[in-house]
């Protein structure tokens, strides 16, 4: 649950507390709230997980809306439509953006010594690509490369 919802469970003297925690980079850029207490009690097993999950999703949506507004104010949320592509190579996936997928794949072929497979692509903007990166930041290996997991595979499949 922590991976995509920014949920943290913290042990306290009086029991356990569930918090939604804003990513540090976004908090440093000015997003508020930074931390929201979602639940507290004696035992994590007694927590209403569905209510906690719903509140996390609402806070995540607020964060994504804030990111979109911030990017468009900075001129980075280009409205120019392109293609967000997903390329798998071994146990990694590259999430990238291009205006010409064919040309990008030709360049990719010469830059990658091992084999690769295009596992999906969707229409979107450069901002949409950054939102994919933010969504799966816990899987980031380096740059635009992410660990390939069942969760990432399912998200790509449902989007493509």
TrEMBL record:
InterPro entries: Phage_T5_Orf172_DNA-bd. It comes from the Bacteria. It comes from Methylobacterium radiodurans. This is Bacteriophage T5 Orf172 DNA-binding domain-containing protein. SMART domains: T5orf172. Residues 87-160 form the Bacteriophage T5 Orf172 DNA-binding domain. Pfam families: MUG113.
